[in-house]
Amino acid sequence: MAKVIFTAWKTKAQLVEVRNEFYPPPSYTGSDLRSHGCAVVEAWKLRGNVPHHVEATALLTDAILHDDAQRNSIFSIRATYSAAFCRFVTGLVDTKIHGVRRTMFQRATDLGLPASFVELRHEATHREPPSLVVLRKAAERSLEWLWDNFWADICDEPGATPALAHDDGVSVRAALCDALQPLAGGSAEPVSKKRKYDRAISVAMRLVSICNASGPGIRLLPGVLLEQELLVPAGRTLGDPLNDTLKEWSTVLLKVAESHPSFLRHLTEDMVNDLAFNTKDASTNPHSEALYLWLVHILTSPTWEFHRQSCPHSYVLQACDGSPHHWTTSLAEQVKKQAKKTSALPVARSNAQTRVSKPQTRPQSQGTTTQLSEKLLAHGWGLLEQWDSRPLGVVASN
């Protein structure tokens, strides 16, 4: 019977993606993603089952990023280097952890770890912290050892996110198409709701990673979605419901919009342009009907209420007025109707407050709150207009 191994990452592609952030390929010319890799490993630690080599890589990388004399003191930098290096060595050679009564030097010899690492770990633990020059060199050698003894053995999967040129639109478009492939073709076998959701989240995280690594990614993504006709089911006829497609793809699009708020603006603009300029038999065109349903869903449904503030409502109305046909006229009516509902909300709330029979007022408490708010505002604090409450993720296993 095969042994079941639980990992903090859902797919091997996610581990490869983090490896490429810690050790970028020579052809990579994008932004520095090492801090993002450290944040991902920190999130994985909350799930558990993170290998020591992965955690040590994140700690050592974070110590290198902390090495900034203009922002941090020399003592703080040395302490961070020492803590990361000591944890790296101790996790490998500590006999109490591995349960075998052998010396640390023997354990280091078995693992191929330089004996100087054990000596430097002893010095940093029981004596004065080593000099900054020594610690920097030790961190560099440690990351090289981790690459040779752990990361280099991890092979790329076909689904792994490729290295991207920062402004290469062709490679970014190819990477986006590859990331969307799991959702491109329908599955012949029935899939559970949980598996559908997990698959959608996995695709969304890959898209976010690509957009983080490349500037044009967030602008190219809506075009790829529309060109590949991923948001419209294949073989759809006029009048067919779109509820399943809206539900499945909204999970992906919402996740991308959370990380890149401008995505929804670009997606809405591209959708309304496609709808407005495709005037050939528009009223009987299933594709135009699908775009209309998508735009109504984004611009009026409660699902998109939090992100809808970045939508270009005025542009949508102008595009509909400039190219009037059955679907653009209906869309403009829906947008105006939703705008009236939104503008009527404050009036309804004020009327509800006036109907309260015995309002409870506390002059002293209100004065204290106002004074406290002024103090907080003076120090850069502010009030969040709407609280974004989302549940934590679940532990994934292979």
TrEMBL record:
One of its GO terms (molecular function) is endonuclease activity. Residues 350-371 have a biased composition (Polar residues). One of its GO terms (biological process) is maturation of 5.8S rRNA. InterPro entries: Las1. Residues 341-371 are annotated as: Disordered. GO terms for cellular component: Las1 complex; preribosome, large subunit precursor. This is Cell morphogenesis protein Las1. The lineage of its organism: Eukaryota, Fungi, Dikarya, Ascomycota, Pezizomycotina.
